[in-house]
Amino acid sequence: MASVLHGLRLRQARERRDAKLTYRELADLTGLSRSAINEYFTGKVLPPTDRFDVLLDAFGVEEDERRALATARDRVEEHLHAERSGGAPRRRVPRELPPPVSSFTGRSSELAALDHLARTAADPTGSAIAAVCGTAGVGKTALVAHWAHRNRHRFPDGDLYVDLQGYHPDGPVHPAEALARMMRGLGVDDALVPEGLQERAAQYRTLLADRAVLVVLDNASSVDQVRDLLPGGRAFALITSRDSLAGLAVRNGVRRVPLDLLPHDDAVELLRAVLGAERVDAESEAAAALIEHCAHLPLALRIAAEHAASRPGAELAGLAQEVAEEPLALFDEVGDDRTAPRTVFSWSYRHLPEHAATAFRRLGLHPGHDIDVGAVAALCDVDASTARRTLRALSNVSMVTETDRGRFSPHDLLRCYATELVARDDPATTHAALERLISHYCRVVAAAVDLAFPSTRRTPSAVEPADTTVRFESGREAVEWLNHERAALVALTRYAADHGLPEFADALSASLWYYLNSRRHFTDARVVHTCAIRAAQAHRDRIAEARALNHLANVEWMLGRFPAAAEQLRRALELSRDLDSDVTAQTLNGLAVACWMSGQFTEAIPYYRQAVPWAAGSTTSAGSCSARSAPSTSAMAAPPRCSPTWNRRSP
């Protein structure tokens, strides 16, 4: 009861906004001796009932609380009497684990890691604390519950469980309240739970000092929420969190077990466990598509599987298509707001600081699968170091995953959620962010092409390389970057054309043409150059349109479609003649080559002859090289001995 008396004494001081009563003052108030009060407050002696009542009077305890405290005092007396008589009451063995998830599949490496860590719980030199960290819906609680039930034999003194509600809209559970819950689980009466956080933490650790107990701290939001809940001795603590809890790893030696999205084979096994092997195997391609559309997220997969189970006659292909068309809408039909992915994502999002929330939303604007620091800096209009810190903050709470290439990616359902959020932003703000992003990419693409293809005649554009946040060590690295970003670059060219940014569509077309052709990405090349043409037409930029027509003709030429190439070049010539010697020289030279390769030799010669004086007036190497690269007039005058038109060698 000593801790109770100390708590009452402290509470009274706070209420009076004064210092705690001294033992002398308590003696004067109660008529008890100072030595007796010292024994009561140090726990050496249990106060007799009448003296306990006198102390309660001195502390101003009201009737309801007085009755509860009196009952608690009587239980302590019974406990002491049982100990003196050699019949100490049996310790309470709590069994508080939530039920295991049915149809649990996979996670063999993570389960093995927890097995290994549990074996160190009895070793004073090893860590007895593990943290399972991962994004919302990835199955952290399911993994811990499955492992804990399978290993209950390791913990004969029981298991404690607290849902810390770290991301709940009502707010997280305070550490002091969590300690009180666990102490009650260990058999401590409410009245004997100390008032202060540190006092509770100390008593909690004392209670667990010699007990082999499993402590599960579920849904922790931060290091501060769980630090005082860590046990010692033989207890083994398992924490789950969306946060990386890096501070616990550094200061408390907590071993982290990262939990990623479910591998494909394990995801298939999950569907087979819920829907039956025969149904899943019969529609294996549809099952694979459903897994992809659910982003390999266990929560989404379970909801989709239960949805399919409720419609046994429906095809999985139809369900996969539903998820593909509206990735988050189907999951809202689960009937439990706390289970729907959109809801659990929102709990994480609401806890983000403003700068991180802005960055997360704008990830929904980026068309690629992942993103680098420079692109995020452009989207958020910040410097690279700020963007890097922001991405690391998102990674720490599992809103994005950092790859070994220094890139960051939310999984597909989180990306859909980010897209939903950014759609609510001010359209002008969103457009400005995308304009900065495309400008950034135009400059990086130009720098990459100049390094990777130094001998190529890249047509200068209105957006030229400047000091960028992306650095390439070699031409190979530049090409790898272009390969990785290709789909995003095509999508951004389309956006530029559709949203009044013709200079960016022109710049991307001018920079990417050789890379796309040399890697035979002809479909993407058609899209890029067609978008540049459309953008130039909308803004009546004849030179930009002619330039893009030249690049489109180059694609046709690479495909052996020389008449089609010539047609595009004739359109370009009509636009550029008398306006730009560089574009005109390239166009005439291209027409000469296209006609020659098509077998139209007499038509080729005039184009070549016209190209020479235009090339002489060219201000760039691109134009002046055009005439030099054309076949000679004499060569054009006769059929070539080896021509793609004939597709055979002359005898």
UniProtKB/TrEMBL annotation:
| Pfam families in alphabetical order | HTH_31, TPR_12
A single GO molecular-function term is: ADP binding
The record, for PROSITE patterns, names:
HTH_CROC1 (PS50943)
Stretches assigned to coiled coil:
none
The segment annotated Disordered runs over 78-105, 623-651
Task: Give the SUPFAM superfamilies listed for this entry.
Answer: lambda repressor-like DNA-binding domains, P-loop containing nucleoside triphosphate hydrolases, TPR-like, Winged helix' DNA-binding domain
Question: What InterPro entries does this protein's entry cite?
Answer: Cro/C1-type_HTH (IPR001387), Lambda_DNA-bd_dom_sf (IPR010982), P-loop_NTPase (IPR027417), TPR-like_helical_dom_sf (IPR011990), TPR_rpt (IPR019734), WH-like_DNA-bd_sf (IPR036388), WH_DNA-bd_sf (IPR036390)
Question: In this protein, which residues make up the domain named HTH cro/C1-type?
Answer: 10-66
- Residue spans of biased composition, Low complexity class: 623-640
Highest taxon of source = Bacteria
Species: Saccharothrix tamanrassetensis
Q: Under what name is this protein listed?
A: Transcriptional regulator with XRE-family HTH domain
